[in-house]
Amino acid sequence: MTSRCPDCGLPVLVTRTLPGKTTAGGKRLAVNPDPDPAGNTGVRRDGTGAVVSRRVTEQQPLMGYERLHMPHAATCEAQQPQLPLDTSKASPTPRQKPLPEGVIRLSDYRQRRT
Ligand SMILES: [Zn+2]
């Protein structure tokens, strides 16, 4: 079933997760509606027409009847909890390079005149 992400409003495909080695299954997982080779979720329709998904791993590779999708949470712009909120700490702005000789900063020039 296609739905919309309540956070960013983009269309998502809501799947039901299958029980896996590490997951109990039966949860709702929104994936991006278009197959994505970079995704980690195998999506298929089960016998009743419901869309089911599971985590694709090395031990449980993608099957021919499944399509690889990206979990929407991985790309949702409205929910990126794994990113640090204060990006200035994560990537400090590089210091300004020294200017070549004979060139002055306009801001310095203005300060000198006042
Ligand atoms: Zn979203």
TrEMBL record:
<feature type="region of interest" description="Disordered">
    <location>
        <begin position="18"/>
        <end position="46"/>
    </location>
</feature>
<feature type="region of interest" description="Disordered">
    <location>
        <begin position="74"/>
        <end position="114"/>
    </location>
</feature>
<protein>
    <recommendedName>
        <fullName>Transposase</fullName>
    </recommendedName>
</protein>
